[in-house]
Amino acid sequence: MYMSVELIGVVVTAFAVLVTLGSGMFAGFAWVVRRIDGVDGKLSARIDGVEGRLTARIDGVEGRLSARIDGVEERLSARIDGVEGSLSARIDGLQAELTEVKIGIARLEGPRPHLIVGR
Q1: Phi, then psi, of 70 in degrees rounded to 5
Q2: pLDDT value at position 41?
Q3: Confidence band for 40, pLDDT divided at 50, 70 and 90
Q4: CA-closest candidate to residue 77, choices 88, 66, 69, 65
């Protein structure tokens, strides 16, 4: 079978283009993989650093808030105890006064009438 020079040139050119594109794609893919590996290591280190700083900061804030909450709880407990004592004293005083009022009313009313009336 006979092939012309132009046809052989087209086939060789097509093969060269395919080899060039294939090697270019392979090189590009290798560059992307290498780039991802480098970025992954840098990002992992950076994320770990940020995580460590945030953990330390959160722990500090948690400690300060715990101290403030404990202080507020102590002050409120003291105030509640004072109010409770005051209210207990007032209730005891009212109870004593109420007993005296009941006795006074009973004295004003006199003895209870008996069901059987004497002659």
Answers
A1: -65, -40
A2: 78
A3: confident
A4: 69
The rounded distance, in Å, linking the Cα atoms of 73 and 60 is: 20
In this predicted structure, what is the pLDDT of residue 119? 62
Collapsing DSSP to helix, strand or coil, 4 comes out as: coil
Q: What is the dihedral of CA 22, 23, 25, 27, to 10 degrees?
A: 160
Cα distances (angstroms) measured from residue 38 to each of 9, 30, 41, 50: 43, 12, 5, 19
Whole-model pTM: value is 0.43
Structure tokens of 74? 């102590």
Which ranges in 1-119 belong to alpha helices (H)?
A: 5-109
pLDDT of residue 118: 64
Distance CA 72, CA 66 (A): 10
Q: How far is CA 95 from CA 71, 88, 102, 105, in A?
A: 36, 10, 11, 15
